[in-house]
Amino acid sequence: MIYNGLKIDNTFAEAFNMKASRIIVTADNLKWAKHACDSFTGFATSVIACGVESGIERKLKKSETPDGRPGYSILLFSMSRSQLEKQLETRVGQCILTCPTTAVFSGIDGEDIIPLGKNIRYFGDGYQISKKIGGKRFWRIPVMDGEFLCEESTSRVSAIGGGNFLILSKNRKSCLEACEIAVKSIENQLNVITPFPGGVVRSGSKVGSKYKALIASTNDAFCPTLKSITGSTLANDANCVMEIVINGLSETDISIAIKKCIQSISKSKIKKDICSISAGNYGGKLGQYHFKLRKIMK
Amino acid sequence: MRPLVLQLKHKLSYRLDMSFLSDFNKLKSLTKLKNKKIIYGSKEMMLKELFNISGSNIQNIIIKKASSLMDNIGKNIEDLSIKVYGNVGYAFGAHMVNGELTLYGNTLDYTASGLKGGSIMIFGSVGKYFCGKPNASNEGIKDGLIYVKGNVGDNSIQRMRRGVVVIEGNIGDYACDEMISGTVIIKGIAGKCFGKNIKRGTLFVKDKKLTKNYIKSNNAKYNFIDFYLKTLFEIIGKKIIKNNSLIRFYGNKDVNNMSEVFLIKN
Question: Rounded to a whole number, what is the distance in Å from the CA of A25 to chain B's nearest CA?
Answer without folding.
Answer: 13
